[in-house]
Amino acid sequence: MLSRIIGLTVGAVLAVSGLPVTTMAAPRVTTVVACRVSVGSVTAGGSNMMRAMVSSSPPSAGSEVMGSDLYPDGQVRLSGPMNYRFNAGGYEITGDVVLGDVMYSGYYVSDHDTGDVASSSLTRVGPGWSNFVAFDESTLSGPTNTYGLRADGVLFRWTLDGHGVWKSKTSYPGFAAVKSMALISQTRTYDTFLANTRGGALYTIHIPATSPMKPVVKLVRRSTWQVFDALVAQRCGPSGTLVAAIDKDTRTGYLYSVGHGNGLATAIQNLGKVDAPLDDPVYFDWTNDNDTITPPFGE
Known about the structure:
Strand order of the largest sheet: 4-3-2-21-5-6-7-8
Oligomer: single chain
Low-confidence stretches: 1-31
Structural class: mainly beta
Distance between the termini: 33 Å
Strand content: over 45%
Radius of gyration: 18 Å
Number of strands: 21
Number of helices: 1
Shape: globular
Helix content: under 10%
């Protein structure tokens, strides 16, 4: 089913005390490469969805149920990226979710065509997540780096060893203005997020792999991004990014082509409104094994 969908659709200052904020010259508009971003969601009924949003003109989107009735209705607060792979019986899917205050590591197998779940499990990771507003994962450096943004603006990073043990915790304060964030670069020496603020500004947050964590923030746009509640980003071309920006209030989404991160000189093109209603409470990034071959390199 997924292959058929893809084939058919082929002003405010960030409150970051002590961080260097770099500004650059005005950007140039670049030619848009045809790309797609696989936007995941958890529905109010607890199912996992995938929408393959394509940078056509206008943008298009095909949808698929990846797992039906996985979670209790309305209980999932946050979801990290979900990884899917194909097997003889269907999709094999893994990822972390937060239900209430507790994070769980999830696994399930579902039918390719219907999304019916043949088997599933939720393994408790631990409590303390009710005050977090976002989390994401970067896997390229070997051990997984998990990032969590707490409501008071403290950004955390944990490194997971090969046995799934969370360790090497480090943090940095000052991100209280951030509304949502999406991973746009994974390298062995740094990760980079694209983040919008409640005041409307757009930034890159460059995080070296060294510890203690010392992010470097660059202003990308000064205003107009405040309406978006969720950002989902995937690689587009050698060094660009396709970003789905979702406004939950109006249940709409827009696609943006974002060039390689370079402060205010970063090229951004609004590709238009996505032709699909987006009324789910939780959004996340779908990944697959090919993403480790061509990881995001947006900054």
